[in-house]
Design goal:
It is a single chain. The chain is α/β, with parallel strands linked by helices. It contains 22 helices and 22 strands. It is globular, with a radius of gyration of 28 Å. Strand 4 (107-113), helix 4 (121-138) and strand 5 (141-149) form a beta-alpha-beta unit. Strands 10, 13, 15, 16, 17, 19, 20 and 21 form an eight-stranded mixed beta sheet that branches. It has a six-stranded parallel beta sheet with strand order 8-6-5-4-1-9, with helices on both faces. It is 45% helix and 19% strand. Among the domains are: 53-174 and 255-301, 2-enoyl-CoA Hydratase, Chain A, domain 1; 313-417 and 477-578, 2-enoyl-CoA Hydratase, Chain A, domain 1, CATH 3.90.226.10.
């Protein structure tokens, strides 16, 4: 028995040794192959253009302000279970690629493919305007093809010389809507009352928690900006497709998304019905070669650009997302922005700053800190020009208002100068489930922070909290008045939480001019009295290796991000300056 046992142990040890050796061999083999692959990928980071290149601009995925460095692993892992995430595409990369396609003779034209990109009207206009400039300045062609267009993507696609559709395609041309969900009756059923503190008749972000439908004020402002966006879409499509605006409204009333595809051609919304594989021949003819090469947004972004080699720099600082208190895992934080501000301020070659803001608002405290960061740059003698994206509203306007000059797109949603706080009262829920709370305190309001949630606020506490909101509103309007060289009373007349389109914000003094980020950069150079300059972007884009490690090891899950955010909110007052993010459908 003992001998057999010893033999068994020796066999197991031998098997373990062989397994370890095989494992090490596989490890080193894979490491060697990965090293070769990485070396090949990153040694060829500058892509060379072929003579018959075509920029394939895919209108799909999620549009963000600042794209990341091209990740050679993204395509490799896109089909792996758990890694097939929606592709994020940078607006900055698209605009820069169109500029390159315009000036590089090897790029013969642009192929707009697809039509379901998630983007807001202001970003869509920036892309469409750049495509129009591309045609006018270069004389090159643009064609478009899709299986489906929503209204915003169709608006972009109409910059093309010709629109090709799949024979089973749809065009969602039926007007615009903005819809909200209201939770008041649901919360009543579960026993939660949301205690609302706010300033601003039009500050509608909190209405879903105490109303069951849109207020008249919210209906008024929402209809105005929806009509303004529709007018932009309709006018642009009318000019490009040679269809009267009256006919376009009539087509919208027919709900084009459920019509037969041949009607799109009959109505001149499209030119030709064609299957996808047949587009190859179209591209051969348009490019002038059967060996044409399609270049994706990511690939074209890797083509080397000429640099100005100037001692002067213009810093472009991006702020995208909700404005969060420090500790949040995404969006805009004061800590993150201030870190970038310090980097910019210590660089003596930086002569001006463009602050690119795309935010519907957020934390009042963080907005004040970022506002102070802008003032810090100005105190160093740097002109600051704001370029507004889809949103620069509420807290997004707060962080913009100190700038020396402000640009917005016509369809930017801005203003919303107001403030609110929301505090849930779970007393009825506690009573339903039999949960009791008790405690003692040394002073009258020592327990207030806890009891306002567990028992609700009394009249005195409500008044105290409302006074906090009023003080925040007073500070907000003073910041706007100082930045825009207006009186505080004049600001209050156009505040009240009201949302304005960029084109309407000019007449009331909230914005200086309509324009895009390129206009803002030119203005910053003029204010700094410089003619030649390079551009530095902040924050720096993620390194592909770092991004790969995040993909393999996994960043925080959505659940972990939610828990982290709740922990932050639990430690501080939930006081916000925020408009309801709007999805234009």
């Amino acid at each position: 028995m003992q001998i057999i046992s010893n033999n068994g142990q020796q066999q197991r040890r031998g098997g373990c040794l062989r397994g370890c050796l095989i494992g090490l061999a596989i490890y080193f083999g894979l490491s060697f192959l990965l090293g070769l692959m990485l070396g090949d990928m990153f040694s060829s980071s500058n892509v060379k253009l072929d003579d018959y290149s075509v920029y394939k601009l895919e209108l799909s995925g999620q549009l963000i302000e600042q794209g990341q460095e091209s990740n050679p692993f993204a395509d490799m892992l896109s089909d792996v279970p758990g890694y097939g995430q929606t592709q994020a595409v940078g607006l900055d990369q698209i605009l820069d690629n169109i500029r390159l396609a315009e000036t590089n003779e090897k790029v013969k034209g642009i192929y707009l493919y697809g039509g379901s990109m998630s983007m807001m009207p202001a970003s869509a206009k920036a892309i469409r305007d750049r495509l129009q400039q591309f045609k006018q300045r270069s004389g090159k062609w643009i064609i478009a093809y899709s299986d489906h267009y929503n209204a915003t993507n169709y608006y972009v696609a109409t910059a093309a010389d010709k629109i090709y559709l799949n024979p089973t395609a749809t065009i969602g041309w039926h007007g615009l809507l903005a819809q909200k969900m209201y939770f008041t009756r649901l919360m009543e059923k579960v026993g939660v009352e949301m205690q609302i503190l706010k300033v601003g008749t039009f500050k509608s972000a909190v209405e879903p928690f105490f109303r069951t439908s849109m207020s008249e004020a919210d209906k008024q402002q929402t209809m105005l900006y929806l009509q303004g966006i529709w007018e932009e879409y309709r006018a642009a499509v009318s000019a490009s497709r040679q269809i009267s605006e009256a006919d376009l409204d009539r087509y919208a009333d027919e709900y084009m998304g459920i019509q037969q595809p041949d009607k799109y051609v009959a109505y001149k919304l499209a030119d030709t019905l064609i299957y996808r594989e047949d587009m190859d021949e179209v591209l051969r003819v348009m490019s002038g070669s059967k060996d044409y090469k399609l270049m994706s947004t990511g690939k074209l972004a890797q083509v080397e650009r000429p640099k100005a080699k100037s001692p002067n720099r213009i810093a472009v600082l991006y702020a995208e997302g909700n404005i969060q208190n420090d500790g949040a895992t995404d969006g805009i934080t004061a800590k993150g922005i201030i870190k970038q501000v310090k980097e910019i301020a210590k660089d003596d070659q930086v002569k001006a700053v463009v602050f690119r803001v795309n935010s519907p608002g957020g934390s009042a405290d963080a907005s004040e800190e970022i506002w102070h960061g802008v003032k810090t740059l100005q105190a160093k003698g740097l002109p600051v020009v704001v370029s507004m994206g889809d949103y620069a509203a509420s807290g997004g306007y707060y962080i913009s208002c100190a700038a020396d000059y402000i640009y917005a797109e016509p369809t930017t949603l801005t203003g919303s100068i107001g403030i609110f706080g929301t505090i849930p009262n779970v007393k009825k829920l506690r009573e339903k489930i039999g949960l009791d709370v008790d405690g003692i305190s040394t002073h009258k309001h020592s327990l207030m922070e806890a009891t306002m949630i567990t028992n609700g606020m009394d009249d005195e506490e409500q008044a105290m909290m409302q006074a906090t909101i009023e003080r925040g509103y007073d500070l907000f309007t003073r910041r706007c008045a100082d930045g825009r060289k207006m009186t505080q009373d004049d600001i209050k007349k156009i505040a009240e939480g009201r949302v304005w389109l960029g084109k309407d914000a000019i007449g009331i003094g909230l914005v200086d001019s309509l324009g895009n980020i390129e206009d803002a950069i030119n203005k910053a150079a003029a204010l700094a009295s410089i003619e030649s300059y390079d551009i530095n972007y902040y924050p720096e884009k993620k390194d592909p290796i770092e991004e790969l490690m995040q993909m393999l090891t996994g960043e925080q899950s959505d659940e972990e991000k939610l828990i982290a955010r709740l922990k932050v909110l639990a430690k501080e007052p939930h006081v916000l300056m925020m408009m309801e993010p709007v999805e234009i459908k």
